[in-house]
Amino acid sequence: MKFKEGDLVEIIDKKERVFILKLKKGEKFHFHLGFIEHDQIIGKNFGIKIKTSKGFNVFVFPIKKTNFILHMKRGAQIIYPKDIGQILIYGDIHSGLKIFEAGGGSGALSIYLLSIIGKRGKLITYDLRDDFLEILKENIIRFFGEIPKNFILRKRDIYNEGLEKKDKNFDRVILDLPEPWNALKNVDKGLKRGGILISYNPTIQQIIKFKSELDKLRNYYFEGMFEILERRWKIEENSVRPIDRMVAHTGFIIVARKY
């Protein structure tokens, strides 16, 4: 496939630094290695190596969601890719699902969910803060080029207002809230039997409180709590060792199934 105007691409230098740009004919991208003309990329095959104005080689690839969310505009703290991966796996996320998400944040998880559920699926996201909603919407539009028709974003307090009457029959519920236990009874009304409930929180106190309130409902099979640590390795001819810095604790993931 070939790059075309309007595509989001990532530029990677020899130090693995990533730069993201949207291709536009006649434009230039200026950075520490000089500049790149967008016309050097448009019409070329995916995965090319080009020279900057200062003679440095850089790679150009189609955008990866992982790099997009790590570099996108943030309001709330994002869910990191290592945790998103486990949410998608343990949530058994696939095409055609109807998903409810409370606490959309900056849209990192929303982007992955929309990419997977496809046009037959549906994602409904609640958030309470106007600034977070605007950033989330901006990131969704930048990645997809528009607001997908199967994405519904609502300003609503899931704690005190609950679900809108028409928001029901969800296959999955995903909570990224400071006090998810206060949303449990409300979201339980919208989750189908056999559906999967996931909560994501950074502190063990939140997890303990959530698990305690979940047990009181008496209609959930508890699958477990997970913490994912990511350590990269450096591979050279005479040296294979862990990289000094790692992405350690970012959050806990609780998974339960409704019966």
Report the uncertain regions: none
* Distance between the amino and carboxyl termini: 46 Å
- What is the spatial order of strands in the main beta sheet? 9-8-7-10-11-15-12
What form results from the Cα inertia axes?
Answer: globular
Rg (CA only): 21 Å
How many H/I helices? Answer: 6
Strand content: 25-35%
The number of E-state strands comes to: 15
The ordered H/E elements are: EEEEEEHHEHEHEEHEHEEEE
Q: Which class of secondary structure composition applies to the elements? A: alpha/beta
The profile of the biggest β sheet is: 7 strands, mixed
Question: Which percent bin holds the helix content?
Answer: 10-25%
Task: Describe what this molecule looks like in 3D.
It is a single chain. 24% of the residues lie in helices and 32% in strands. The chain has six helices and 15 strands. It is globular, with a radius of gyration of 21 Å.
Any chance you could write out the topology, listing elements then pairs?
Blueprint (H helix, E strand, L loop, with lengths): L7 E5 L5 E5 L5 E4 L2 E4 L10 E4 L5 E6 L2 H7 L9 H10 L7 E5 L5 H10 L4 E6 L2 H15 L6 E5 L14 E6 L8 H5 L2 E11 L2 H14 L2 E8 L5 E4 L2 E4 L9 E7 L1
Parallel strand pairs: 7-8, 7-10, 8-9, 10-11
Antiparallel strand pairs: 1-2, 1-6, 3-4, 5-6, 11-15, 12-15, 13-14
Q: What labels describe this entry?
A:
about 260 residues, alpha/beta, 15 strands
Task: Give a short synopsis of this structure.
The chain is of the alpha/beta class and 259 residues long. The protein has helices at 65-71, 81-90, 108-117, 130-144, 184-188, 204-217, and strands at residues 8-12, 18-22, 28-31, 34-37, 48-51, 57-62, 98-102, 122-127, 151-155, 170-175, 191-201, 220-227, 233-236, 239-242, 252-258. The model has no long low-confidence stretch (mean pLDDT 96).
